[in-house]
Amino acid sequence: MRTSVSARWLRTAAEVPESAVDGRHFSTTVGWSRGWEGVRTERVVDHRHLLLEGGPVAELVPYYLVSRSPLWDAYESDAGIGPIWSGPVVYSASLYGEYGGAGGSTPEYIATCVDLGREQTARWAAEALIFGNLTSAEVDAWSAIRPGGTAVLVDRAYAAPIGGADSPLPAMRGRVRRELVRQWRRAKDGGLRLRVLAGAEMLPALDEFTDLAMAAAEKHGINIYGKDIFENLAGAPGAMLLVAEHDGRMAAAFLCFLHRRRFSMWTGGINYLHLRELKTYAFLMYESMTYAAAHGAEIVDPGRGNFVYKERHGFLGTDLWALVYPTTPRPALREALRRMSEGIHGYITRSLRRDELAAL
Fold first, then answer.
1. CATH number belonging to domain 163-297
2. Cβ atoms within 10 A of the Cβ of 298, count?
3. What distance separates the 2 farthest-apart alpha carbons in the chain?
4. What is the pLDDT of residue 359?
5. Is pTM beyond 0.85 here?
6. Is-same-fold flag (6-156+317-353; 163-297)?
7. Class of the CATH-defined domain 6-156+317-353
């Protein structure tokens, strides 16, 4: 049965109450969408939001006009290809948000998202409209309703169920579990302590966290962060900074979101000078999962990247795709996107083939 869809453009997500729409993921909530409007590390030069109603749930679909995305640049680097874009593109939503799919709850919503989104992309004179961080099933659903896009593999995210406060760790091999617990105990004996800063409480700590997050990103290739990102997301639902402190200083921290019983460790920063000595990564992983279980989470999501470590610790991977609709047909662009997708697949495959345990 077809539904009658009502679609309305909004200048800012601030026009919509948080409770009025269905944000399935922390990165598709009103608070996240509103926060990303103010980000400048990813060069957001304009934005609109499409409020969809008439289906089982209302949804808010963001569209950001972006002149440069450091995260897209990092994916190009991982794929081993040169720059694809020569001008601005439109993201719905930002690739930084780990999970996308806003507007995907009904076929009518999907058709409206693509049709009106492409019209807005043309008005902005952007090169393409990119629906970011879709699962394979979502790519199939969107492509069936609105063909013409090119699917590009961009990353892999991880998650696993946990069994509550009495069983906070995901299913992992006994040896791996014992080693994680051993490193956590060693970290505690070495003086590491957990501090949780929720929402605005994290703001005074963001200078220090930004330095660590930028250093971690640069260690793995290209810095993709700036303090503006973290400041703008501090007000998103369930935002918190889990800090591993040593002698009163931040040794490492994860920026996390608890939303719909899913605890997401979105990104982190680590002082690499003391990483192996203090076992800060193992400490934060264990403490994060324990915190998640104690606060009602049923799923723990350690985010993207570091594929070997996460798979060895019992997390299951989900490939994430960008579905790209060019403003005008360009065979050369389609070929470049195909090569990028193949390059990312090769990058992930090579990472998983490395015979090493990230002994963090």
1. 3.40.630.30
2. 14
3. 62
4. 40
5. yes
6. yes
7. alpha beta
